[in-house]
């Protein structure tokens, strides 16, 4: 298993898919990382040499914000929104969707199952 940015990546995955196990790296960003480091998209993680793994690791450390740093920044941004009491911050405080979605019939993932239970009929 290759370890990049503190994440163990399974050997049987293609490099493009394996890099998406890192928080903050999606398919498009993974492809651009491989293009910058001149690594083939067809290779699997287990087939990479130590030098190729270290190239990927160095590129990510130098150019991207991933894993813990990214999570911390996102948490600080949400906290700032709640402190300045803007609309999005209020929605975060109330555990409601803050990007304009309707909440009358959906939003179960944010609101929980409390509204769905209702009153039992006799």
UniProtKB/TrEMBL annotation:
Superkingdom of the organism of origin: Bacteria
Region of interest called Disordered, as start-end residue ranges on this chain: 99-122
GO MF annotations in UniProt: rRNA binding; structural constituent of ribosome; tRNA binding
Pfam families xrefs: Ribosomal_S13
Gene Ontology process terms (BP): translation
UniProt KW keywords: Ribonucleoprotein, Ribosomal protein, RNA-binding, rRNA-binding, tRNA-binding
GO cellular component terms, semicolon-separated: cytosol; small ribosomal subunit
Gene3D superfamilies per the UniProt record, alphabetical: 1.10.8.50, 30s ribosomal protein s13, domain 2 (4.10.910.10)
Similarity annotation: Belongs to the universal ribosomal protein uS13 family.
Subunit architecture: Part of the 30S ribosomal subunit. Forms a loose heterodimer with protein S19. Forms two bridges to the 50S subunit in the 70S ribosome.
Role this protein plays: Located at the top of the head of the 30S subunit, it contacts several helices of the 16S rRNA. In the 70S ribosome it contacts the 23S rRNA (bridge B1a) and protein L5 of the 50S subunit (bridge B1b), connecting the 2 subunits; these bridges are implicated in subunit movement. Contacts the tRNAs in the A and P-sites.
HAMAP family membership: Ribosomal_uS13 (MF_01315)
Protein name: Small ribosomal subunit protein uS13
Organism per entry: Geovibrio thiophilus
């Amino acid at each position: 298993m290759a370890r990049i940015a503190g994440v163990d990546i399974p050997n049987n995955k293609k490099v493009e898919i394996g890099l998406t196990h890192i928080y903050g790296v999606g398919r498009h960003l993974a492809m651009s990382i491989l293009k910058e480091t001149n690594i083939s998209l067809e290779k699997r993680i287990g087939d990479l040499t130590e030098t190729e793994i270290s190239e990927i690791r160095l590129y990510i450390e130098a150019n991207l914000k991933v894993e813990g740093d990214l999570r911390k920044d996102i948490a600080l941004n949400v906290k700032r929104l709640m402190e300045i009491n803007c609309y999005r911050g209020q929605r975060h405080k109330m555990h409601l969707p803050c990007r304009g979605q309707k909440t009358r019939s959906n939003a179960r993932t944010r609101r929980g199952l409390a509204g769905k239970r209702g009153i039992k009929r006799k």
